[in-house]
Amino acid sequence: MLELKYSSHQYEAGTDEAGRGCLSGPVVAAAVILPDHFEHELLNDSKQLSDKKRRYLRPIIEKEALAFGVAFVYQDKIDQINILNASILAMHKSIEAMAISPEFIVVDGNRFKDYFSIPHQTIVKGDGKFLNIAAASILAKTYRDDYMEKIHDDFPVYNWARNKGYPTEEHRMALKEFGSCLHHRKSFRLLPDQLKLDL
C-alpha cells in the first residue's frame, strides 16, 4: 500500500512529469494535493497501470484533490534549456497552477530546484511510494497522452497515437524515412549514429 504523503503538513503537494525520454512533444508535469482521508485501491505509479485504469482514475483524482495543476513545456523550450531543466520548469508551473499554495513538496526522482521558499524532498521511485506523487504521475501521463494523440492526426506517419513519441523502432523508422517535424526535439539524438563506409 502506498502512503498518503511524506510529511505532516496538511498541504503537501506531490509532483511528477511524463515524457522526459520522448523524442517528440512536450514534457508534461502535474502537482496534486490530496485530502487526508483520501484512499483508492487502484491508485499506483502510472507506469504500473493500464491506460484504461489511468483514465478511470483521472476524474476521481481531479474531483477528490484539494488542488491540482498540470503544465506543458514544449519541444522548443526543451531544446533551449535541456530536458532536465524543462522537467523541473514543468513541475514548477504545475505547482503554480494549483489553487492552493503547498506547504511542502514531494518530487518523484532525485533532481529539483527550490520553488520559492517552500521546502521539498526528492524521492526516487516516489510514484510507487506516495499517493500524491502517484496521482500526479497519472495526471501528467494522461494529459500528455491526450496531446500526443491529438497531434498524431496531423503527422500520422510517426504513429504517436501508439508510441506517444517514445523512441520505438517504429518511430525511428519513420524518422529515417520522413525526417523530423516541428514537434521533434532537435537537441535529442533522434537516430543512432551509423557507421558508413565509402567503398
UniProtKB/TrEMBL annotation:
Co-factor requirement: Mn(2+); Mg(2+)
Alphabetized GO MF terms: RNA-DNA hybrid ribonuclease activity
Ranges annotated as spanning the membrane: none
Alphabetical list of PROSITE patterns matching this protein: RNASE_H_2
Main location: cytoplasm
Family: Belongs to the RNase HII family.
Protein name: Ribonuclease HII
Organism: Lutimonas vermicola
